[in-house]
Amino acid sequence: MKRRKLIRFLFHFVFLVLTLAWVYPLIWTVSSSLKTNREMFSGSVKLFPDKFEWSFLLPSNWGQLEEILQFDNYSRAWYIANFSQYFINTLLFTFAVVIIVITLCALTGYVLGRYDFPGKFLIMGAIIATMFIPAGYTIIPLWQLINALGLGKSMAGLVLAEAGGTHVLYILLFTAFFSRIPKELEEASQIDGAGFVRTFFTIMLPLAKPVIATTFILQFINSWNSFFVPLVFTIHRPDLRTLGVGMYSFVEDNSSDLAAMAAGATISFIPIVVIFLIFQKYFVDGIAGSVKG
Amino acid sequence: MISKSTISEQKLVSNELERKTRKKSGLKRKHYMWCYLFLAPQIILYLTFTLWPIIGSYYFAFFNWNGIGWPTEIVGWENFVEVLKDSYFWNAFKNSFVYTFFLVIIVVPTSLIVALILNSPKLYGAAFFRTLFFLPVVLTMSIVGIIMQNMFAFEGGFMNEILLSMNIIDDPINWLGGPNLAMTSVVIVGVWKGFGIKVIYWLAGLQTLPKDIYEAAKIDGANLIQQFVYITVPLLIPFLIVITFFQTVWAFNVFDLVKTFTNGGPLFGTDMVPLYIYRYAFEMDGGLPRMGFASAAGIVYGMATMVITLILGALVRKYGKNRY
After folding, report:
1. Predicted confidence band at B170 (pLDDT cuts at 50, 70, 90)?
2. How far apart are CA A227 and CA A214, in angstroms?
3. For residue range A229-247, what is the model confidence (pLDDT) as tens digits?
4. Cα-Cα-Cα-Cα dihedral of A136, A137, A141, A144, to 10°?
5. Residue range A77-292, CATH number
6. Average pLDDT over residues B108-119
7. Hey, which of A56, A214, A259, A276 would disulfide with B138, CB 3.0 to 4.6 Å?
8. Domain boundaries, chain A
9. Any idea of the CA torsion for B132, B138, B139, B145, to the nearest 10 degrees?
């Protein structure tokens, strides 16, 4: 029995070491963002800056932390390397896309899930067919279309390119959810005198919070991390770059300032990791649903 | 007496019903209007941002076009011929398939092993471990590519340091110096980045397994390995196919990672088709963009990958129906 316990303990230990090694690139990024560039080039595997001692973490020694940890990297990334601009752009871009996508998919899913009307199956079929039609390089017509609309060099064009189109998974999630709500609820609200629109906004939409949360988290992470669309659509507008694209161009121009690069990476990772940890349940439910469904 | 009252009741009910349906059909017509109004934004965006790009991606492939204005110089199949004759295209094509192949055969089984461990009731802190495995998935791929340049650095990079300290290698490896090693590095990072999501898929699959079958098997004297081979694996086949499908599609379209990690190099050793196409459409150094040619390459690649995804898709549908 004792041996079994030992094996179990050893297994947990090995598994823990393995998972910590798994997230090491993340730990490296954060620790590098607090080092000097010279330290980084001379063996970047050490986690803590050379002058670091554990006693610095005592509250009475916090004053000295600033001398050892290079917070300067952050100000270089934020002000000089333009990460402040990239950060605001990413925030704007992400929230605009998420709001558009949730609105679109909730409206579509509600109607498809609860009502019968002529043409319903045509619309349903057209939405699902997009998953099976082989597409070529669709970014070129998209690029041409956005330019033709006169939005080629604007944030609006960037958002539209990312949010437009058909988000089949979310539509199906909303459709399935709304179709399961009992009919009595709707009838009750109609007896109370609520019309189609009011029933949707005051009764149905609040009920759909779990689906909204799932859509929010999936699309938030998607847009925050988006690279291809922002890369193509900000070619002529460096000031519209998002964090992913901004980081890429920063490294191309200043490949020697690794510490500022790490600081910039940390800046762009923190929001997404925090959002993920908060909404983890909905996120896991969402992607698990996509494989079960 | 009784029959009379039932008849009148029935009449009443049928009257009521009639009134209701009449009222309903009036309501219905009003509903139709709202339904179409609710759908209008989606329909408009569907036509412009989904259907048109698909059609356009075919249409533009028949033109010689630098992306300015509307294409006018029609060239027929010329672009396609040029794509099929270009050895750089076939190099990128080969690389894309090599990358996808290794990603699938590495990730699909190993992520199942991790999911089985995480699913075990004997593991403490499963949620904590799951979160750590999942973290790479939510990170920005383009930034991961840049960080990985440092992880795979020749001097002082994490990969070399850890392998040296464990005495697995005697001399540092120049990971990004040659085509084959660079491809290995890209595969390693690709595995790492997409691993967590497959673990979640497998966990979702494992949760659907009925517990009573295992109880019955235990009573019949089946050990853990027999239970795994004869119960778990057959029941998970639908999930195996779906996960393989997702991983394949994901790997075929890799762009962010190779763009920021190796930019296709060295010597085009990690050049993949999405990167190849991007160069012609948006990155013609010193030359004009060749949007028509890029479109043609996109279609050739789309068709080639479709064959594989169609086979997997057919399997998904076949096994999806016989789901336990």
Report:
1. confident
2. 22
3. 999 998 888 889 999 999 9
4. -160
5. 1.10.3720.10
6. 94
7. A276
8. 77-292
9. 100
